[in-house]
Specification:
This protein is α/β, with parallel strands linked by helices and 795 residues long. The chain is 37% helix and 22% strand. The strands form four sheets. A nine-stranded antiparallel beta sheet has the order 18-17-16-15-23-22-21-20-19, with no helix packed on it. The protein has an eight-stranded parallel β-barrel with strand order 8-9-10-11-12-13-14-24, surrounded by four helices. A hairpin with a 2-residue loop joins strand 17 (469-474) and strand 18 (477-481). Helix 3 runs parallel beside helix 4 (131-144), helix 5 (181-193) packs parallel to helix 7 (231-242) and helix 23 packs antiparallel against helix 24 (733-755). The N and C termini lie far apart (73 Å).
Length: 795
């Protein structure tokens, strides 16, 4: 009897365990979208939404595309283009493409782009709801395929894919420096390779007007310096992009950034002319007159003309950085504002934008603009492009509007791909999450010294030394900080800002505050005075509201994002190097599921492969770099210069602008900084190998490779000296080469000491630190990217 009870008990227990396992497997367990093994070995970029690799290979000496009846010209063109280097023949192994819906012509922003791709040892099958999905499937197939000895090989796999966001673009400024059609077409090819689908062309600026108008011919005749796209060229660009599944959105910047309009038509401006196109950069005075009815008549005719050549349903009206100087100086405009009861110039700009929106609607277009256009006076059909911070993106979608993100994806900041990869539209980098303490607080008015300018901000601190926290208030944006540490009388913390991680140091001296904000190698002094606190009668702590996360409905209003390349210090020769390959990391953030875009190391592994893939498929940034270096070297061998340029990076953010005494559109951009890449893969690899060497207890891993690289930079100095003696003088060349040599000499010494487990004395450490600090200082707009890795060896 007891045995039966025990047997029954364990039988029930085993049954319950089995049922629980079945329940967990079918209802609770979520297998990874891509296995760790497949993630570690795939070369694809962007990563597909779901993928499983198989243990076989599709091999064919000849292939043939079999398209179903719904495959229109877009799929035919894409298949022909992708298959240009493949052995295509009528009786080859099949690549089947099945599309559910036929294309209706003009591409819409929310087209279904999903697809499935299945590769077996016998055949390849693509299925997609629309032609656009089939196009992206072919791009995936092109990355997977290898052609060797005239035979095509594709690893067997099963992929189910669709984009995270529908708007995945690049904004290209062709105004400040002219970017001709052939370069734009190559950029489109790169976009197609990484599944980006919106080319945003910035066509008017202070410096130039870059498109032919049939209605107002003086726009291009007088405002373009002779370089502009004819309407036939624009149609060619639009068609070329369309054949690759890409929309083209034009931007005409209004009402500011508008000098080039007024050279031929000064009557449109807020102040009388004459005008000439600006050659300097910055936020300048010229601006449209929103009170002049002739302005709206002019813009109506202009956009009627532009609507014919740009089929996309969106037109970008700019709207950013409107300098109100000329509005303030015009009594008639001030009187108009009084009559309309406008409280400020923001309301005047909103009035202008409402009128502009009506014109665009008349021609079947929707408005998109930079985040300054965000205003309750405009309806929610507009799209806000957030460039100053993600705060405006969140504000737009929380108020039932649509938005795209560019903050954090400014390519002209020259930030590393890993930094761009950390940006996510649904994660606010400076969200306020701290708990205020109204019983223990203090607030300071502070000035941040940036060059010759003083920028006002406020700092609020809560708590005591054991739990200090607070926030920075800068230009209406809050940046919270926690985990403040104290060392004697100095406090320090990190702040996650829109421009990167700030290293902050504070010192309190009575009612005064001093210290610094550091951003990379840049240090900016701060000083301030206490204006409030729990010990100052009559003052109250600032009201702080915690950031409320986006709801799923609000997230759905985020259309996507755009990488932006502004052209103050960019030319046709190096613009591609400022876009690629880093933009592939941004493309992946916009395409792939968020859960798959966390591993930065894996991203870099694939980005290096994508770098080669882009070059093999026509991107010209490496050949252009060689041409620029050859021009510097003259008739001499370029090896020494390439060795130096290879470890240089252009300085970050807008620090390059300060390296010129008088930068204009005519300033030659042919120096070391212009030839250098924004991110050096050689430096990235060196710095990574240093980390691995230091982590190795035996100090053997990578030792010989690191020693060889350091010695190469030491001996490279002599070769550069020979170039200099041959008369090839370039600003910063001798200094940067000498700095690299000195830093590398320190590196060899530290590398050997680390391997021998020897320590340096304080005096020697100080000497090396001084050398490395000097070597890290930029020259001629460029910085040596391996100094950080060499510095780590001092540990």
């Amino acid at each position: 009897m007891i045995k039966r009870i025990i047997f029954w008990f364990f039988g029930v227990l085993l049954t319950l365990i089995l049922l629980a396992g079945i329940y967990f497997f079918f209802f609770m367990y979520k297998p990874p979208l891509i296995s760790a093994k497949d993630l570690a070995t795939t070369n694809l970029m962007p990563l597909p939404a779901k993928m499983k690799m198989k243990n076989s290979v599709f091999e064919a000496s000849e292939i043939v595309f079999r398209l179903n009846k719904n495959c229109g010209e877009l799929v035919k063109i894409s298949a022909a283009r992708i298959g240009e280097t493949w052995p295509v023949a009528e009786k080859g192994e099949k690549i089947e493409i099945d599309v559910e819906e036929t294309s209706e012509g003009i591409r819409k922003p929310l087209e279904d782009e999903s697809y499935s791709l299945e590769v077996s040892s016998q055949k390849i099958q693509i299925k997609a709801k629309t032609e656009y999905g089939a196009v992206w499937a072919l791009e995936t197939l092109a990355q997977l395929a290898q052609v060797e000895g005239g035979e095509i090989k594709v690893p067997a796999c099963k992929i189910s894919d669709s984009p995270r966001y529908s708007w995945r673009g690049i904004m290209v400024d062709v105004c400040r420096h002219w970017i001709p059609k052939d370069v734009v077409l190559r950029i489109i090819d790169g976009m197609s390779a990484v599944k980006m689908n919106v080319l945003h062309l910035h066509l008017s600026e202070y410096q130039a007007f870059r498109i032919e108008s049939k209605t107002y011919t003086k726009l291009q005749q007088l405002g373009s310096d002779g370089n502009y796209f004819t309407q036939d060229e624009i149609k060619e660009i639009v068609d070329y992009a369309k054949d690759r599944g890409i929309r083209v959105v034009p931007e005409f910047d209004l009402p500011g950034h508008s000098t080039s309009w007024f050279v031929g038509y000064p009557e449109l401006a807020a102040m009388p002319g004459p005008y000439c196109t600006d050659t300097i950069f910055g936020v300048l005075n010229p601006v449209f007159d929103p009170t002049n009815e002739d302005v709206y008549f002019f813009l109506d005719n202009f956009f009627k003309d532009m609507s014919r050549i740009f089929p996309d349903e969106y037109i970008h009206i700019g709207g950013d950085e409107v300098n109100t100087h000329d509005w303030e100086a015009n009594p008639r405009i001030k009187k108009f504002m009084e009559d309309k009861d406008f409280a400020d110039f923001e309301e005047l700009q909103a009035y202008f934008n409402r009128r502009l929106q009506s014109i665009l609607e008349k021609y079947g277009k929707k408005m998109i603009g930079w985040d300054e256009i965000l205003n309750p006076a405009l309806d929610t059909t507009i799209v806000v492009q957030s460039w100053r911070s993600q705060k405006s993106l969140w504000e737009a979608v929380k108020n039932n509007g649509k938005a795209i993100l560019s903050a954090g994806w400014y390519l002209d900041h020259k930030l590393p791909a890993g930094k761009h990869y950390s940006v996510d539209p649904e994660v606010l980098p400076n969200a306020v999450t701290i708990e205020p303490d109204t019983t223990n607080w203090r607030m300071y008015d502070v000035e941040l010294k940036m060059g010759e300018s003083n920028i006002p901000l406020q700092l609020t601190f809560y708590g005591d030394d054991t739990n200090m926290r607070g926030f920075v208030s800068l230009m209406g944006s809050l940046m919270a900080f926690e985990n403040v540490s104290k060392n004697e009388d100095e406090y320090s913390c990190k702040i996650n800002s829109d421009y990167g991680e700030l290293t902050c140091i504070f010192r309190f001296e009575g009612e005064k505050l001093s210290g610094s904000f550091g951003l990379g190698v840049i240090k900016m002094a701060i000083s301030g005075e206490k204006i409030g606190g729990n010990d100052i009668a009559g003052t109250v702590p600032p009201k702080v509201e915690k950031t409320v996360p986006l709801t799923e409905t609000e997230k759905a209003r985020i259309l996507g994002g755009e990488a932006c390349i502004w052209a103050e210090v960019v030319t046709a020769q190096n613009i591609e190097s400022r876009i690629w390959p880093r933009t592939a990391a941004i493309a992946e953030k916009l395409w792939s599921p968020a859960s798959l875009t966390k591993d930065v190391d894996n991203m870099y592994r694939r980005l290096k492969l994508m770098d080669n893939y882009l070059v093999e498929n026509g991107a010209a940034y490496k050949t252009n770099q060689i041409k620029m270096v050859q021009k510097m070297a003259g008739d001499n061998d370029i090896s020494a210069l390439m060795n130096l340029v290879d470890v240089l990076e252009e300085v970050k953010f807008y620090n390059r602008l300060s390296s010129f005494s008088n930068l204009t559109v005519n300033t030659p951009l042919e120096g070391l900084a212009d030839a250098a890449m924004p991110e050096s893969f050689t430096a990235l690899e060196f710095n990574k190998m240093v980390d691995e060497f230091l982590a190795d207890s035996l100090k053997e891993k990578n030792y010989l490779v690191l020693e060889s690289m350091l010695n190469n930079w030491i001996t490279n100095y002599e070769a550069v000296e020979q170039l200099l003696q041959a008369g090839n003088q370039r600003e910063g060349l001798e200094s940067l080469s000498a700095k690299l040599k000195q830093a590398a000499q320190c590196g060899v010494k530290m590398l050997k000491a680390a391997r021998a487990k020897e320590n340096f004395g304080d005096e020697e450490k100080a000497r090396i630190t001084e050398i490395l600090n000097f070597a890290q200082e930029p020259e001629a707009g460029a910085e040596i990217a391996v100094i950080g890795g060499i510095r780590k060896l001092l540990q």
